[in-house]
Amino acid sequence: MSYAFTRSLGFFSALKKVILSTKKTNSSLSYRLLLQVSLVPTVWLLRKSSKISSFLNLSICLRISAMDGNSSCALVLCGKSSAENETAKTLKNTGALKLTDNTELSILLHPESEKPIKEDAFGVDSFMNSLSTNRFGRFLLWSPRLPSTHDVVSQNFCELPIGAVCVADVQYKGRGRSKNAWESPKGCLLFSFTLQMEDGRVVPLIQYVVSLAVTEAIKDVCDKNGLPYVDVKIKWPNDLYLNGLKVGGILCTSTFKSKQFNVSAGIGLNVDNEKPTTCLNTFLRELSVTTYQFRREDILASFF
Questions:
Q1: pLDDT tens-digit series, residues 171-221
Q2: In this protein, which residues make up the domain named BPL/LPL catalytic (predicted)?
Q3: For the domain that residue 98 is a member of, what is the CATH number?
Q4: CA dihedral of 143, 149, 151, 153, whole degrees rounded to 10
């Protein structure tokens, strides 16, 4: 069997191809597919078409004062279409979204506030303007400070549309595999998203697809901006390394309900934070690149 992916495939298309391949094989597919993917270092994942649709020419303003306290958090909801923005309004009006530790949560719609957003905050408009996808990433939850993006999407899975993504500027309870703590300072791309599938044989493979997707998103940004090759390597199944130092990790969890596997995939990537190890922009500075610095919004849009 061949599992070659092309540049034109986004995350959903790549995953769909894996699922279709699964249906054509016997129960040993998980091992065989994993072996095949591991042996293809030049696999292309998550390359979108060069045409970027424009959207959301908005001026974002938020009640930042409501987000900075230690006892509360805020989520800003945004959709790429009117239907997704209606979903955001419904979630705000019903108060359906919750945090795992019962932290007080306020819901805002994009744009909705009194003060300009901080300069180092995630650029909601920039991300939406760069996003070219039919499903994933089109419904966004953003917060300057959360316990964990993964906990947000996993706890509220049934309330969110499939493909919803949650982004935080800072996490204070970030975690990795085996309940390991994940340091989540400013400058780190921190996001989690939802997906759903029926075939349980595919679920263990998602972390491999996501790991490859992150490295290809970085390559995509490099190509678009004329940057030198940034060789982020994968330590299977879910760690990302640059120059021998860990710069990222992936956490995938799932539950089974109504004959469907509900999967929450969380990613942390050091983009502009030199500590605790190194980051992508430190690598560019070491190469004396001054024309461009990696932006979280660009990488996330390329990921989907």
A1: 988 665 555 555 578 999 999 999 999 999 999 999 999 999 999 999 999
A2: 125-304
A3: 3.30.930.10
A4: 90
